[in-house]
Amino acid sequence: MDIDPQVTERISRKLEEKGALVDCERIEAKLNLLVKDFGIPVEEAERTVTNEFIRELKLTNSGSNRDNPDVMKIADTNPGDWVTVEGKVVSLQTPPSPSMAQAGIISDDSGAVRFVVWEKANATLLEENKWYRFESATIDEYRGSPSMKVHSGTTITEIDEDRPLMPVPISLSDLKPGVATVHVKVVQDWEPRHERMFQTGILGDETATTKFVTWKDNNNQKLEEGKVYNIYYAGVDEYQGRYSLNLTGAMFLEDEGAEIEISGGKTTITGAIINLGPGSGLIKRCPVDGCNRVLNRQNFCPLHEIQDKFRYDLRITGVLDNGSAATNILIQREEAEKITGITLEKAIEIAENNPLGLEDVFIKMQDILIGRYFQCRGNDMEGTLLVKNCELISFDPQKHTGLINRASEQDTGVDL
Question: CA–CA separation, 6 vs 241, rounded Å?
Answer without folding.
Answer: 46
